[in-house]
Amino acid sequence: MVCSFRSEVDRLRSPFYPKSRTRRLESQANVLPPGARSNRRQEAKEEVKDKSNHAVILDKGTSDKLYKDVQSYRLITVAVLVDRLKINGSLARKALNDLEEKGMIKKVVGHNRGSIYTRAAAGGD
Description:
It is a single chain. With about 120 residues, the chain is mainly alpha-helical. The chain contains six helices and two strands. The chain has helices spanning about 5-10, 20-30, 35-45, 60-70, 80-85, 90-100; strands at about 105-110, 115-120. A two-stranded antiparallel ribbon has the order 1-2. Strand 1 (about 105-110) and strand 2 (about 115-120) form a beta hairpin. It is elongated, with a radius of gyration of 27 Å.
């Protein structure tokens, strides 16, 4: 009698089938050859991201870049400023509030999780 794969899976997941046997069969299916296991560990080690040192104080160069370049961005969020200017997240939030007060950018969406801004002068968009 030939049983299909689907019925075999249903039989293993049946509440009447012994759990210990099901776990043992599933663990045997997940066993990898020794070489593959070490490669997986090595890939996991390579994916670790280095801790970046972002500025916590707005120095002269960063300030000039902030006021000059941010006006050309179409999408402005805290994450964009952190990524492009290499500044801290709290500093980016303060900078966005300051730019909005000066009228250089305008808020599109305000939410407690984050705000989205765009450039104030919509010249041809």
